[in-house]
């Protein structure tokens, strides 16, 4: 599944049909509740995928971002180093300095050790610390200031949210960001989700009428 993702699915989606940002849920904060052997197997798969994909990403000028808590002491050092490394190897530079500009590149985001609730909580903690330090007034906290401290900032909100395996829940994924995303549910399991399934999802999305709360 991971090899197919790197070699087939990402190249088939990113850069086509106006798709500039693709976010993949690699490991959730709740996945720690799984058996230790299963977690280790997942980590091995993710590590191999990251190592394979880094060469391709650098060659094709893709930017890779990891969304989630990489400071978690439970993470194996080798996996953490690989995730930090792929971000560094693909990060854009502007005038010799790291840049957060994503307007002129294709971006692959790996949500790893990630949870939507956890992301909102860590953003609020940062703002609370600023209030405590006297550098931010509570009345100055807005939707925008919360978003600016999310792991996902400054990525655009997803237009299309694809849920595989026939599940109907969001599973704590990008909770802040998918407020107005179109939710597409497919019975296809993720390892079997390929270009054909992607085309079906894109066709479905093309018939949606997006109002963002308006008429």
The helix content is 40-55%
Pattern of helices and strands: HEHEHEEEHHEEH
Number of alpha- plus pi-helical segments: 6
Mean pLDDT: 91
Total E-strand runs: 7
Strand order of the largest sheet: 1-5-2
Structural topology:
Elements lengths: L1 H12 L7 E8 L7 H25 L1 E6 L9 H14 L2 E2 L2 E2 L7 E9 L1 H18 L9 H5 L12 E4 L18 E4 L9 H12 L9
Parallel strand pairs: 1-5, 2-5, 6-7
Antiparallel strand pairs: 3-4
Helix pairs in contact: 1-2, 2-3
Write a concise keyword list for the protein shown above:
single chain, 215 residues, alpha/beta, 3-stranded parallel β-sheet, 16% strand, globular
Question: What report would you give on this structure?
Answer:
The chain has 215 residues and is α/β, with parallel strands linked by helices. 40% of the residues lie in helices and 16% in strands. It has six helices and seven strands; from the N terminus they run H-E-H-E-H-E-E-E-H-H-E-E-H. It has helices at 2-13, 36-60, 77-90, 116-133, 143-147, 195-206; strands spanning 21-28, 62-67, 93-94, 97-98, 106-114, 160-163, 182-185. It has a three-stranded parallel beta sheet, with helices on both faces. Strand 3 (93-94) and strand 4 form a beta hairpin. Helix 1 (2-13) packs parallel to helix 2 (36-60) and helix 2 packs parallel to helix 3.
